[in-house]
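hey can u check if this looks right to u? its 386 residues, i copy pasted from the old doc so theres a chance i mangled smth
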Amino acid sequence: MEKQLFEVPAIAMGELQFKLDKLSKKAKKAGTSDIKLIRVGRRTDKDGSQICIVAIEGEPVKYEGYTFLARLDHNVDPSGESNLVYSMPGEELTEAQRSLGANCEHCGWKRRRKDTFLMRKDDDGSFLQVGRTCLKDFFGHDPAELVRRAQYITRVIDEVRRAEHPAEAYLSNRRTVDLATFLGYTLVAVGAYGWVSGKEAFGDPDRHSSRDMACDAMFRWPRPDPAERPSSEQMETADKVIEYILTLDPKRSDFNFNITQLAKLEVIDYKATGIAAAMIFCYNRHLEQEAAKASAPKDEPANSEYVGTEKERLTLDVTILSSRVQEGQFGYYNITRMLDAAGNLFVSFGQYSEDTGAKVTVRGTVKRHQDFNGVKQTVLNRVMAA
């Protein structure tokens, strides 16, 4: 089946996917095959809003030598002047077919009909219009599968068309959120006010978290000014954020596991937006580390090797490369980087601190070996002056 393209505002993609998932569950219970909403691309509208280009894909509805093309809802006018047309994905009706009256070529009776089905015969390509109640007589038995699948596809198309021009009520549910669009709005908030975590904003009525500011702008009605919407460049950055998060090791921590799980999704639960917003913080920290690495002195220990074995107590003559204070969950601690005469890098996380450039002898226990930004380093515990 060929693709039928639709343009849906990115802010409506979450609610659209939620509704389509509900329809999909009902379709599976009814025994009909599923159809998919595929993202083809994205563009920026004239007012600065993001538009997702999507397509509906699925198997054509075929039954006993006929392919279902469309359901014609004749509304209140049997002449066809006020028809509502629900074509199958990839099927395009002619102007004459869209305006067909409420006729049935099987029985030929002139009577009021709510809707009719337009089908194409597979062997000769001829078209046939049959009323709903005549389908059973036309095929010789009740084609319930045909009707169910046709109704399912037309409801899917109807939901997509509603999402193309969402009203305020459509956006007010906040059940699911398009991840890339949400990250775009988070980038706008961080660019304007810096990163504000939920912890920093808690209890301060004058501060709002980056997540809350992004959600407010994303779902506000009337729509926010263009300056509060993500630009094309910010949406490209949002894609880069997702790509970076997918490179993280999910086994390193529960936080890493959660954000990598979310990065695999196109649409996320609204309750997960707090975790998703932290992707921006992680990405910006990654950029800062890359910038620091690029500007590091040329004598950075590129040839560093691992030293010792896990839990081994070492006595080392080292030069202090750097020592800085970091705030953690349980208070403040020092990150101290040290280099021995062989060019091997050591790092400690704890209370030990010394002036940069100092040449000292220390004792420490090997906690682990790790590769950080392509440089091998030995992490030490319980570091103290020897």
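The first strand starts at residue 4 and ends at 9.
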